[in-house]
Batch of 3 targets.
Target 1
Amino acid sequence: MTKFVLGVNNCWAVKRYAMPREWIEITATKLDVKVVQFSFDLLDPRTKQEARDAMIWETLNAAREYGITIHSAFTGLAAYSFNLLMHPDPGMREDALDWYEAAIEAASKLNVVAVGGHVAAMTWGDYEDPKRRELMISVLLDELRYLSKLAKASGLRMLLWEPMPVAREPPSTISEAKELLRLVNEGAHAPVKLCIDVGHACSPWATRKEDLDPYAWLRELGSESPCVHIQQTDGKADRHWPFTEEYNKVGIIKPDKVLEALEESGSKENYLFLEIIHPFEYREDKVLEELKVSVDYWKEYVG
């Protein structure tokens, strides 16, 4: 029997509710959720140390006051814009490694159990060249093993690696995810796990229908994905829609099917984090309204 915990990624608060007490109070009182995955879009880990640590202190104090658990820390839209650990230039890869070192330090100060997210993207030139692609994957695995050692030394339980819907951003297929997990964990210190996003099964490079099926991803790899990102989507793109009546009519993500697939995977425990991203132009009252509707919808399935 799988234990399911419903939570939210606080990406919804980015630029709208920048102060910790704001988004924590909303999470606890309006959304009525007790578990959060922290997005580094709200606090760049390379912020000046004094300012960063003050924000972390304020976050922990407010979370304690409102009974909120911050489970993990994750990359957001800002980091997703970069090549990070697979940049073709070694100096830029070194800089990306420095960013992740800072992310691990910040995550440790937040007292979370895991850190991760989008880790790397190859350029088209590197991806097209088989030898260069193989080299870049090897480099990435070494970098992740190093970060797993730093995570272990910092008191974190695991690193989280998010599969992406782009072939240049491995892993993007089920078989690739299995193989890369096997390879990276051969020399890892803290275990490297996945954070599957149910909206990422939409790769235009996919050649197997299973790779376009979010439930196949969950059945095959749910036991290796202690966190799952939940969004409504039509399976054609990475939508990050809310679970409102409008989007549920066209969306393919059904809570009962998600839970069933994770049960079939043999997973013991999964944190289901709603990762709903509204346009920045969206009205704040509508953002909160649709988040609340989405939370209530999932609470019918996850107690």
Target 2
Amino acid sequence: METVISVLCDNSIKAPGFMGEHGFSALIERNGEKLLFDAGSSLSIEHNLKKLDRNLDGLTKILVSHGHYDHTGGLKWALEQVGSVEVVAHPAMFSRHMACNPEDQSDPGLYIGCPYPREDLEKLGAVFRFMDRSIEVVPGVWFVVGIEREPDFVPSDPRLVLPEGGSFQPDPLDDDASLLIETDEDPVLVLGCAHGGVVNILDHVKKQMGVNKLKAILGGTHLMFVGSEDMPGIIQKFEEFSVELLGVSHCTGMKATLELAKHFGGRFELASAGSVFRF
């Protein structure tokens, strides 16, 4: 059985003719199932689907990694194409996710959550299924959420906050979710942003799901705020899973991307918009 993962939205592009946009989205096709994992910011998924000669006809489900606008902005367009479809997400998807300058107490903050109210998306056909624990959403595809988090491995991003009682509190991004996809060989882990920490996610799939080897890790790793002194430990964690392909996207950050590319060599690839991975 072939699994095809096509990157529809990323900050960078695979080749001329594709559209780059801040955010992430991937189309997953396998065993007659067609899944959309995130929907980018807004514009790129329509353009890049056409460029790849693909479409959303017969879409089985939409899976949401978290409620930030750069992963949910394309939901309205996607629903307009397919009508009624199940949307799997964490209950905190519609939290009041905001960003602010932590050094400026007068900063009113900027809303960066889902640009559409739940009710509007439901009118377009979204049938929400909120999950706070990992679950197999279709045979061989797991929605990985609600993982245990070791605080030392959670990315530090003080800009991300939630409004509470007239002030801001750190946003725990409880809705952060990933996908674990079984293949004919080893599973593939697809990350949206890894706000829960890529090391924590890997520990979860090993300890709770019995996964000791990964064919590939694809998507946003949120390593942009990780210092060079921490990268060897993260690389070692990847190597514990004998990863054959590391394809990073979106929020990985240039410095981390360069370090990963240097270490993994021929096993490294940018999972840019327009990239197609076959397993």
Target 3
Amino acid sequence: MKTQYLIIGNSVSGVNCIEGIRQVDKKGKITVISDEDVHNYSRPLISYYLGGRIGEKKDLSFRERGFYSENGVDLLLNTKAEKIAPERKKVITGRGDIEFEKALISTGGKPFIPPIGGYSAVKEGTFTFTMLADAERLISYIKKNDIKEAVVLGGGLIGLKCAEGLIGRGMKTIIVEL
């Protein structure tokens, strides 16, 4: 597959990039790939989803579903960029290679897991909180195990937003911060 503009990531910066491109180039082919399965959502709102203030995933969207077709964008969901070969202007994905003229990597940040002794041995009941899938896994775990209390490691914006969602679910929540 060939595209003029390749955007890896489908959050706010990726969508803003689409809008910026369309201001100067109305026809160039734009392809967006995302390893997630939703067309777009506001990551800061996942705390409201966790807390039950937003009940439907569709209510997390900040652009209508027609945004992509209206802007002539090929949106490839569930597609992970596995390797980038910038010298060949190519991205390798599980669904095939994509050649591009220009590319933007707008995947957002990744959670930092501090080097805490024994942490790697603990799998069940530990979560990160940066993506909608994280919130969905957390909600499922809470419901399945009837969890009433939680500890949030980190008092930055993401930790506080997670705590806000947990408190919204009526959970006793403790925040641990360095």
